[in-house]
Design goal:
Blueprint (H helix, E strand, L loop, with lengths): L26 H8 L2 H10 L4 E2 H7 L5 H13 L3 E6 L5 E6 L1 H4 L2 H28 L7
Helix pairs in contact: 2-6
Pfam family, one: HxlR
Keywords: DNA-binding, Transcription, Transcription regulation
Protein name: Transcriptional regulator
Length: 139
């Protein structure tokens, strides 16, 4: 292994999700959803209470209408968000966390708080790494 090798290798037998019959196989699928950048930001925003689509879009900086639509649909499918349509003209729709989704809020909020507190140190570490390893695009 070269000194610049940074990939982590794990024998298949040590990876429980590598076995289809292991009870933890579904963990990756769940982590993919709740670890997704947009899902985290939507959950953080919905932790404050129900929001309409445009309110969510304004609150989650940088998210496109299409990505927000996909994100709330996925969260709804996973039982983390409830979409409610009110019979008004025009129709009013809001999104709120389900009990399962609300159970995530303290974890996601802690992750968001940690990210905010450490973003400067991470930016400095990235800049130092990029100077030390020119041409290694790891984004």
């Amino acid at each position: 292994m070269s000194p610049t090798h940074t990939a982590v290798t794990t024998p298949a037998e040590l990876d429980p999700c590598g076995r289809h019959d292991h009870p933890d196989c579904g963990i990756r699928d769940v982590l993919d959803r709740i670890g997704d950048k947009w899902s985290v930001l939507v959950v953080v925003e919905l932790a404050g209470g129900p929001r309409r689509f445009r309110e969510l879009q304004r609150a989650v900086e940088g998210i496109s209408q299409r990505m927000l639509t996909l994100t709330v649909r996925r969260l709804e499918r996973d039982g983390l968000v409830r979409r409610t349509v009110y019979p008004t003209v025009p129709a009013r729709v809001d999104y709120r966390l389900t009990d399962t989704g609300a159970g995530l809020t303290h974890l996601v909020k802690a992750l968001a708080d940690w990210s905010l507190a450490h973003r400067g140190a991470i930016a400095e570490a990235r800049a130092a790494y990029d100077l030390e390893h020119p041409g290694h695009d790891v984004r």
